[in-house]
Amino acid sequence: MWRMADFELTRRPRRLRQNPALRTLTAETRLHPADFILPLFIADGLDAPREITSMPGVYQHTEDSLKTICHEALDAGVKAIDLFGVPLEEDKDATGSVAWAEDGILNRGIAALRDEFGDDLVIIADTCLDEFTDHGHCGVIRTDSRGNEYVDNDETIKLYCDMAVSQARAGAHMVSPSGMMDGQIGQIRKALDNEGFDDVVIMAYSAKYASKFFGPFRDAVGSSLKGDRRTYQQDPANVRESLLETELDIAEGADIVMVKPALPYLDVLAKVAETSPVPVAAYQVSGEYAMMKAAGANGWIDFEETMMESLVSIKRAGADQILTYYAIEAAKQLNG
Ligand code: PBG
């Protein structure tokens, strides 16, 4: 048995840090462009792409600019995108019905991408109602006997099922339920299978927290939400329920599970990754992007280097896939 004292003069960890080649050789974690999933927004009624104020460099897209950025992603080696739809204000209603309309903005975007890219690009659809409801909640609102409003779990899931099937029909390779209703994965799996879409993958937002880091995203999709999502998204104080949520989702048929946000929840990610028998994705959310962007713009941090550091940290913590608004730029940096 050796003792630390025997080695204290010869054991020099800095030896492996001498130059870039040695550091690269001994790096435990390597990012690759194919690790990334690029979240994208398509908006109805736009003539030209519109930059999102709180997310500089991120745009609401037209169908044309959406195709262009997907080509750019593929050229950089990014093989998957996650599409969100931004409907016209006047198309929003209490149930978010334009979400599953064949000619709704999200399904039009999915169909256009599947036409353009076939199976070369993994097309992931966000399966949630909050962009489409006039109240901004992720589900249907009911009033209980005491007159209090609540988001009805099972009624909401029925709509998620319609939405997922419509997305599969439009050409999505993958649906990603992000509404945190209990039992949503099992019901969506059943609905997809019943319609013959047993090959459509489900990426479950399993451990999704009621996070203020989503702030800029609400800008990005023109959310109508007043209030918060604390009755369905998880409490930031908790980690055990993330293990329960992911276990349930896997039991219900999730092909990929996700932890979200990423950087403030690396402990959750590490715990989930330790035991998950399916791939684990992490979502570096809008607020994470916006904070680093803002600090970079002020010259307070080096935006690019900080972004890469955050991405390698997310992978080191256990993410197999990383959803990041920085996907194309990061891939380009990796490609040299
Ligand atoms: C809900 C949804 C949200 C995000 C992705 N899907 C917002 C929310 O739950 O309030 C946030 C993504 C981000 O902040 O980048 N459909």
Q: How would you describe this structure to a colleague?
A:
39% of the residues lie in helices and 19% in strands. It is globular, with a radius of gyration of 21 Å. The strands form two sheets. Strands 1-4-5-8-9-10-11-12 form an eight-stranded parallel barrel, surrounded by eight helices. It has helices at residues 4-7, 20-25, 63-76, 105-117, 153-170, 184-194, 215-220, 240-252, 266-275, 286-297, 303-316, 327-335, and strands at 36-43, 50-52, 55-61, 80-86, 122-127, 140-143, 149-152, 174-177, 201-208, 256-260, 280-283, 321-323. It has one domain (31-335): Alpha-Beta Barrel (TIM Barrel), CATH 3.20.20. It contains twelve helices and twelve strands. The termini are far apart. The mean pLDDT is 96. Helix 4 (105-117) links the parallel strand 4 and strand 5. The structure holds ligand PBG. Residues 126, 128, 130, 178, 214, 217, 229, 285-286 line the site of ligand PBG. Ligand PBG binds next to loops. InterPro entries: ALAD, ALAD_AS, Aldolase_TIM. It catalyses: 2 5-aminolevulinate = porphobilinogen + 2 H2O + H(+).
Provide tags for this entry:
single chain, 336 residues, alpha/beta, TIM Barrel, 8-stranded parallel beta barrel, 12 helices, 12 strands, binds ligand PBG, porphobilinogen synthase activity, Aldolase_TIM, Delta-aminolevulinic acid dehydratase, magnesium, EC 4.2.1.24
